[in-house]
Amino acid sequence: MRIAVKDPSINWFALQPQSDINKVVITDGGTRRVVGTTSERIALTEVEGLPALRRTQALDSEELGHRRSETVVFRDGFLPHSHRDETGAYVLSIAYRGTTIVGEKRMTSGEVIPIRTEVGSLVFEAHSVEMVLRLLPLGAGYSAELPVFHPGRGTEILVTASVFGRETLTTAGDQRDAWKVKTDWNGVTQYYWIGAESRQLLRQASHLTEGVQLEFLR
User: Fold this and answer.
1) How far apart are CA 148 and CA 5, in angstroms?
2) Helices (H), the chain
3) For residue 12, what is the DSSP state?
């Protein structure tokens, strides 16, 4: 089924403020090594006089680099408001104004690349997809499609999500049941383990190259 921004079938206010820190693990040829940490904080805020959520993420890794991003969406329906991404190579700033998306990519070299895109209908911000997944009525055989704007690619894509099983994970000494969700981002596959009861993001994985896997683990 297609999930739209402001879809009335979803309880958008169900996502509560939360935060966590994960290990970044690379498995190469069967050898696992921790290469850094990621952190996430979802907080209540207000923009344009309306309740919103601010998701702040950070990657700290000597091997993968350092990254900071902030995404703001209106709480009622997850209509995106803004996104900012800072890396060692650039600062990307995006503003969402209905179906008009504007911003710039400012390179450390001084080059500024303007961004302006018109989309046919309202879209989710790519960095809010992991929040949306926590609100979906996940269950055996469930699948959904999300229209998404991907700032890094500078284009609209259709993200598909499908539940492909359930697994008990051990995190911080506790056992938690999780739905395993496979997502496809126009040919790029990401896997998520979302708590069946808590609806927290407990694990994330992707394949970088043949035999090499990247994971974010609690």
Assistant:
1) 10
2) 129-133
3) G
Is 180 in a helix, a strand, or coil? strand
Q: Is 178 within 8 Å of 163 (Cβ atoms)? A: no
Q: Are strands 155-171 and 143-150 parallel, antiparallel or unpaired?
A: antiparallel
Nearest Cα residue to 92 out of 101, 81, 80, 84 = 84
What's the angle, vertex CA 157, arms to CA 201 and CA 154, rounded to 5? 100
pTM strictly above 0.85: yes
Q: Distances in Å between the alpha carbon of 23 and those of 1, 34, 152, 201, 217?
A: 33, 7, 24, 13, 5
Q: Assign 132 to helix, strand or coil.
A: helix
109 CB-near residues (< 8 Å, 6+ apart): none
* Per-residue pLDDT at 34: 95
Q: Which helix (H) or strand (E) holds 210?
A: none
At 31, phi and psi to the nearest 5?
Answer: -95, 125
Kind of pairing between the strands at 18-28 and 31-47: antiparallel
Chain-wide mean pLDDT for the chain? 93
Give the three-class secondary structure for 200.
coil
Given this model, what pLDDT does residue 172 score?
A: 67
Instruction: Give strand pairing partners of 174.
Output: 171
Residue 92's contacts (CB-CB under 8 Å, 6 or more residues apart) are: 83, 84, 85, 86, 103, 104, 105, 106, 151, 152
